[in-house]
Amino acid sequence: MPKPQSPSLTVDCVVFDKNDRLLLIRRAHEPFTNCYALPGGFVDLGETVEAAALRELKEETGVDGCLVRLIGVYSDPTRDPRGHMVSVAFLVDADGAIARAGDDAAAAAFMAEWRHLSYAFDHAQIIADARKLMGK
Fold this sequence. Notes:
- This protein has 136 residues and is of the alpha+beta class.
- It has helices spanning 49-61, 123-133; strands at residues 8-15, 22-27, 36-37, 40-42, 66-74, 85-93, 105-111.
- Helix content is 18%, strand content 32%.
């Protein structure tokens, strides 16, 4: 029996500090090279989405976090130009963390002016949904 074709599974993390700055990366690779994005990436085989979110956060930004809650599941087949990617997005607490770029990130920082930026993928929607959940 042939294996069914399925979307790839990814995770994204929304991390605000106590000063309402948003943790962002600048992408080092295509698609969206040098664009702002949320920390995240692909879920490894045998890994939970929760573990993948914290692993990707650490690999891309050097930040250790704690999952607060699920923001949502983003499954629009056109959200990623590489193909159908489904992302599970989490709100993450990482109070007092200092970001440093690693892995697939060209840069990583807590940004005060995050409201005026444009983002890769559907990350603007994920951020807006997180803010609603936070009551902001």
